[in-house]
Amino acid sequence: MDLDALRHGNFSQLGEAITDWEKMTENLATLKEDAKKNLKGKADKASWNGVNAKVSREFIDKTAQEFADAHTQADTITNILKDTRGELIDYHTQLTEAIARGDKKNLTVIDTGHGTFSVTGNTRPDWASDPSGNTSATSQQDVDDLRDEIQRILSKATESDNTAAKALRLIVDQAKYGFSDAHYENRDAAAKAVADADRMARILAKNPHDVTNTELASLNSMLAKYKNDPLFAEEFATQVGPKKVLTFWAGIADPYQGTYDPDRAKQAKQLQKNLGTTIGLATLSDSDKMQSWEKQIIKLGPDQLGIDDASNPTGYAVMSNLMRFGDYDDQFLNDYGDKLLAYDKKVNGEGINLWVNNSNQGDLNYWGYKNDRGRDPVTGFLEALGHNPDAATQFFAQPDGAGDTVNKASEVNEHLKYLTKERVWTADITLEGKHGYVAGRNSLGHALEAATTGFAYDATADQIKAGGEHRTALTAGVMEQVSYLYGSKSGPDMLHGQPELADSLGKMAGAYIDDIDHDLSGVGEYEKDSGTFPAKYAGRANFTQAGAINFLSVLGQDENSHRAVTAAQHLYTLSALDAYPPSSDANIEHAHDALTAGAQARGILDNSRVQQAETTYKEGSDEANKSLGRSAEWIKLGVGTTVGVGIGAIPLPGSTAAAVVIAPIVADTAGEALNTFIGQQIDKSVDDREQDPAEAAQLTSSQFYKKGENQLGLAYHTYIKDSPRAAEIANNQNWNDDIKNAYLGVGSSENDYRGRTPHKD
Predict the structure, then answer these.
(1) 41, 49 in Cβ contact below 8 A?
(2) 30: buried, middle or exposed (CB in 10 Å: 19+, 13-18, 0-12)?
């Protein structure tokens, strides 16, 4: 900053601009609330169909969010401008006071241009008669002190001005067509974020082998601190550069650098998560720098990096392990995934796997390492989709031109078809891992969970409860494809050949149990009961009655998928009894329909479970009975179930502590039926834990069915026990037979009616 610019600067125009921005911020705050309450609020309550359900509603949601981002950006700009103006005025005051003090000492300060200036002492009038020969009115020390003081002031003013300008440019460039959600209270906060990013980038500029554990700890600490800061993320990513991000992580991750160091391994594990999260946040920026960065990362994908670490991995191998964590730009993930799968199709086959082989010892993943060394880049990419629901829905979207439901192969997304039916998957385990376990298929399940539910696959019960309904016509479109594939004639073979997917498939079906019940409620494809089973979102899934039966019959074959869907079905049926209390004949009729449709779904699942147990093991054998005993224990999932507005979250024990089954509920809140179920299960779980593990439950098929019938009967009893009117109607209409027949099936074609035949090895 030039001396005269600060010395004679007029800050009134900047003040007027700040006043305008303050007014703009106030107006945008009003518009933000209006868009939230009126625009989005009314759109959420509207009934959308056809193109409107897929396009208009999404557009309105994004528009409402843009008003919120516009307010955030305006507030940040106002804060930075106000803070910077205040600092510059303070530096202006300091400068004028310093020059005034110098003037009293006969010192002259002159702006010499381009940020330079001079300080000189005035010539003394009596210089010729001074015996000492001193011609200056002041000492050299006075000159040096004033020069240094002014330089400090100008340096600080320059830093304030430059960092404010850089922060404002970064903020504005974050969103090319919209607004940034980056928020800062003042210039100092924004400037510190950028400075810290530059400091951390210098660590990555080093040879990873030369980076100390202390530096790694500092890097982890700073990345974690700024995990939600978009300016930090973009500055960090662009300063490091695409290739250096990859080579640095490969060098840090490589376990064969030297002597094993537990502390370094611990730091490396955290760095994988922190670095991936920061890079993901950076991709959300629309700046030209980040757009170029993303293109370069994708371009580096198929090529080896030319390093000695981690068996000289490809760009795909490294980047896919970093993107296991973080919120990434949807389009970037889709572009990356398109290129990755196109390349994978060229190199994947029955022979030696390009990714997983004895010559590739490039372990790049520290999370779940025993069963997933991170050598297959498709696995890491699918994990990324599992944490980025919108990107996953887009990646597996129905092809254009699909009808009301999926009923032919041409209506299945090519990515989904390749990953579920064509790709050769290879186990990537260590010697301590689970034999034959394929982590990639488990990650595919995670990606599909996100694509169909709208939640990250590992979303917690609290996040689901607070988030509410996330399904859309687009997520339903993915779900219809999944049901078509796994409900097909080859579905049993697919499920049993991909056991890692079973729990995810069960969770997906559970999330759509209301739509499944709706399809089961009709007579064929006619007269479906939308009154009892109302659509909870626009563009609900249509599986068709036959498709729903086939899909459930396949899921029932596996213990894991059976328990997830059965738990969701039970919760949904109970919620219907809460939603339709016996206060009117219309409600009582709805309760009847909910009980019979729920019994039918449960019957399909249980019948399939019995048939598969008897096919896999000898009928009536201890192993078959133990399998049925384990399947009957799904009821324990009620422990810890939480219910939010229109949605329930059922804990699902497994490898992921946070894993839950998302279950829609008819009512907005839990009523007596749901609360009684959850409360009873908490008490029952205590008794179960006290039992000797050796006394594991064993059930014959008849006992298994009787247990299921009793659970349905209890729900029925709970509904009518305190309502003489409901009991009278139920008795007159013979609900007993309706529910039993729906559950047990009737007639010579019972098993045909119940869907696919069991899988046979």
Answers:
(1) no
(2) exposed
Beta bridge partners of 650: 661
List all residues 6 or more positions away from 318 whose beta carbon is below 8 Å from its beta carbon. 246, 247, 249, 250, 305, 310, 364
Task: Write the burial class of residue 587 (CB in 10 Å: 0-12 exposed, 13-18 middle, 19+ buried).
Answer: middle
How big is the CA angle at 272 (ends 460 and 431), to the nearest 5 degrees? 90
Distance CA 373, CA 366 (A): 7
**Main-chain dihedrals φ then ψ at residue 664, nearest 5 degrees:** -70, 150
pTM surpassing 0.70?
A: yes
pLDDT per residue as tens digits for the range 352-382: 788 988 888 889 999 999 999 999 999 999 9
The helix (H) or strand (E) run that includes residue 101 is helix 57-104
Phi, psi (degrees; rounded to nearest 5) at 80:
-65, -45
Give the burial class of 12: count Cβ atoms within 10 A of its Cβ; 0-12 exposed, 13-18 middle, 19 or more buried.
exposed
Q: Are residues 598 and 712 in contact, defined by beta-carbon separation less than 8 angstroms?
A: yes
User: HSE of 643 in the Cβ direction (CA atoms, 13 Å)?
Assistant: 25
CB 429 within 8 A of CB 435: yes
Q: Which tokens in the block code for residue 567?
A: 């738990």
Q: Cβ contacts of residue 291 below 8 Å, gap of 6+?
A: none
Give the separation between CA 62 and CA 472, rounded to whole angstroms: 14
Neighbour order of strands in the sheet with 660-664: 642-644, 647-651, 660-664
What is the Cα–Cα distance from 324 to 369, expressed in whole angstroms? 13
Instruction: Please report, as a single letter, which amino acid is at residue 587.
Output: N
Q: Looking at the predicted structure, is the pLDDT value of residue 54 above 60?
A: no
List Cα–Cα distances, 580 to 152, 597, 667, 709, in angstroms.
75, 15, 9, 22
**Three-state DSSP class for residue 512:** coil
For residue 640, the one-letter residue type is G
**Cβ-proximal residues to 95 (8 Å cutoff; 6+ apart), any chain:** 3, 6, 7, 150, 153, 154, 157
Q: What is the distance between the terminal CA atoms of the chain, rounded to a whole angstrom?
A: 79
Cα–Cα distances (Å) from 297 to 27, 170, 428, 595, in that order, read 40, 21, 24, 54
Lowest mean pLDDT among 143-147, 202-206, 468-472: 143-147
**From the CA atom positions of the chain, what is the Rg in Å?**
33
403 pLDDT higher than 60: yes
Amino acid identity of residue 476, one-letter, is: A
Average pLDDT, the chain: 85
Segment 257-302, tens digit of pLDDT: 555 688 889 999 999 999 999 999 999 988 888 999 999 999 999 9
The tokens describing 141, both together, are: 């020390």
DSSP 692-718: -GGG-----HHHHHHHHHHHHHHHHHH
The token pair at 310 is: 């981690």
Task: Give CA 569 to chain center in angstroms.
Answer: 25
Residue 241 neighbours by CB under 8 Å, 6+ apart: 293
Q: Based on the number of CB atoms within 10 Å of its own CB, is 249 exposed (0-12), middle (13-18) or buried (19 or more)?
A: buried
Confidence check: pLDDT of 655 > 50: no
Give 128's pLDDT tier (boundaries 50, 70, 90).
low
Closest by Cα among 331, 330, 326, 336 to 367:
326
Question: Do residues 255 and 363 make contact, with C-beta atoms less than 8 angstroms apart?
Answer: yes
Alpha carbon distance 380, 439 (integer Å): 10
Please say whether the beta carbons of 92 and 75 come within 8 A.
no
- Residue 579 CA to its chain's centroid (Å): 31
Residue pair 751/547 in contact by the 8 Å Cβ criterion? no
Longest dimension (CA), the chain: 132
Strands (E), 154-232: none
Q: How far apart are CA 323 and CA 297, in angstroms?
A: 12
Instruction: Answer yes or no: is pLDDT of 174 > 70.
Output: no
Task: Please calculate the CA angle 315-320-322 and round it to the nearest 5 degrees.
Answer: 100
167 and 187 Cβ atoms separated by less than 8 Å? yes
